[in-house]
Design goal:
two-stranded antiparallel sheet, 51% helix, globular, 390 residues, five-stranded parallel β-sheet, alpha/beta
C-alpha cells in the first residue's frame, strides 16, 4: 500500500515538472519574439505580403510592368489584404486599386508615380471626354468684312482639331442682342476645355453698337478682321446681289449720284463697307489694336498657308494648318482644302466663291480707286500694315 502511494506521488511530480518545463519554454519563446524580434513573424508577414502581391498581379498585370517591387508599397496586415481581395472579388479596376493605395498613404515607386494610370477602356474614356464637353461663349470672333474672305477663313480654321465653329452666322450682337447671352451660348458647338470656340458674322464690323456689346461679354475676346481691296470687295458684293436678286440697278447708278463718277454715293452699303478706317476707329474706341488681327484677303487666296500660320499664332493655337493643307482650284482660282490622314475635311468651298465679276468700265474702276485711296492710306497708318491696294 505504501509502495503504491509512492508510485502515484512520483507520477504527479513528474507531470508537474513537465508542466513547469513547458511553461518555462513558452515564456522564453515569447520573450525572445518580442524582445529580440526574431525573423519568425517577419517571415510570416512577408509571406502574407507576397500572397497579396501575387493576388494583385493576377488581377492587374499592368501593375507588375509599372512597379516590379510591390513589397515596397503593399500593406502587411490582414485588413489591407482583405481589401485587395475585395478588389479581385468585385472586379474593381486598376484605377480603383490606385485610389485605395492613396487612401492607405502608400508611396508608390517613382516609376509608377510618373506613369499614367491605364484607362479602364476606350468606351469609358470617351464617356469621360463627353462629360467635359459643353457649350461655351466664343473666345474669338471673325468680325468682318463681308466679301473679304471670312467664309474661307472659317472653313480653313475648321481643319484645326482644337477649333470648333458655328455653322450659320449668329448675328447676335447686331440683330439678336435682346435675346441674351444664354440664347447666344446655345448656338455654339460643344467643346472640350482646351478647344477654341469661334464664330463669324461680317456685319459686326460696320455696326456701331457691336464693339461695346462684345466687350461687355468679354473684354479679352480675340477679334479677326479679313480685309480686301475695297474696290474689288465692292464689285464682289454687287455680284452677290445680282446672283440673289437677279435683275438690279447697274453698279454705276447705285455707286454714283446721278451717274456722276466724281460724286460717290456713300450711303450705298456696298460702298460704305469699304471705308475700313472709319469702322476701325469705332472698334479702337473699345478694344486695343493688339486685340485685332488683320488678315490680308488677297493673300488668303494666293498664299493661304502663310496667312493661316499668322492666324493660328494670334489665336494661341499650335501650328497645324500649313501650305500642305491646300491645293489650288485652277478653274476658279480659289484654294481647296486637301483631304489628309489627319484632316478628313478635304473639300472646296461652294460655287459662290470665286464666281466671275461683271466687267465694269475702266472709268468706274478709276473713280472708285481715287475715292478709296485717302481712306486706305489712313487705314495703313492706323494698322501699321501696308496692304498695297492701288
Amino acid at each position: 500500500m505504501r509502495g503504491l502511494t509512492l508510485n502515484r506521488t512520483a507520477r504527479i511530480c513528474r507531470k508537474k515538472a513537465w508542466s513547469h518545463v513547458l511553461c518555462a519554454g513558452v515564456l522564453i519563446f515569447t520573450l525572445s519574439v518580442f524582445t529580440f524580434n526574431t525573423p519568425f513573424l517577419s517571415q510570416a508577414g512577408k509571406t502574407a505580403s507576397k500572397y497579396s502581391e501575387e493576388l494583385l498581379y493576377s488581377k492587374f498585370p499592368d501593375f507588375r510592368h509599372h512597379n516590379r517591387n510591390l513589397r515596397n508599397i503593399l500593406p502587411n496586415d490582414n485588413a489591407q489584404f482583405h481589401r485587395l481581395k475585395h478588389i479581385q472579388r468585385t472586379g474593381k479596376s486598376l484605377n480603383k486599386a490606385h485610389r485605395l493605395a492613396a487612401n492607405w498613404n502608400i508611396t508608390l515607386t517613382s516609376e509608377l508615380s510618373q506613369a499614367e494610370v491605364p484607362k479602364e477602356s476606350e468606351e469609358e474614356s470617351s464617356v469621360e471626354g463627353e462629360s467635359l464637353k459643353k457649350r461655351r461663349l466664343p473666345q474669338a470672333i471673325i468680325i468682318g468684312v463681308k466679301k473679304g474672305g471670312t467664309r474661307a477663313l472659317l472653313e480653313f480654321l475648321r481643319v484645326h482639331p482644337d477649333v470648333k465653329a458655328t455653322g450659320p452666322e449668329p448675328h447676335f450682337f447686331d440683330k439678336h442682342y435682346q435675346k441674351g447671352l444664354d440664347w447666344y451660348r446655345n448656338l455654339m458647338p460643344e467643346t472640350l476645355p482646351h478647344q477654341l470656340t469661334i464664330e463669324k458674322t461680317p456685319s459686326y464690323f460696320i455696326t456701331k453698337e457691336v464693339p461695346a456689346r462684345i466687350c461687355r461679354m468679354s473684354n479679352s475676346t480675340k477679334l479677326v478682321l479679313v480685309v480686301r481691296d475695297p474696290v474689288t470687295r465692292a464689285i464682289s458684293d454687287y455680284t452677290q446681289i445680282l446672283s440673289k436678286h437677279g435683275k438690279s440697278k447697274s453698279f454705276q447708278s447705285s455707286a454714283f449720284i446721278r451717274n456722276d463718277t466724281t460724286k460717290i454715293n456713300t450711303s450705298w452699303i456696298v460702298i460704305r463697307i469699304g471705308l475700313y478706317v472709319k469702322h476701325l476707329e469705332n472698334w479702337l474706341s473699345v478694344f486695343p489694336l493688339k486685340q485685332i488681327h488683320f488678315v490680308h484677303g488677297e493673300n488668303l487666296v494666293t498664299n493661304p498657308g502663310e496667312e493661316m500660320r499668322k492666324v493660328q499664332t494670334f489665336l494661341g493655337l499650335r501650328t497645324f494648318i500649313t501650305e500642305d493643307n491646300f491645293i489650288l482650284n485652277k478653274t476658279r482660282g480659289f484654294p481647296c482644302i486637301k483631304k489628309t490622314m489627319s484632316s478628313k475635311r478635304g473639300h472646296c468651298l461652294d460655287e459662290s466663291k470665286g464666281r466671275k465679276h461683271p466687267i465694269l468700265p475702266e472709268s468706274v474702276i478709276a473713280a472708285l480707286r481715287r475715292f478709296y485711296r485717302p481712306f486706305n492710306a489712313k487705314f495703313y497708318r492706323l494698322t501699321n500694315i501696308n496692304f498695297h491696294w492701288t
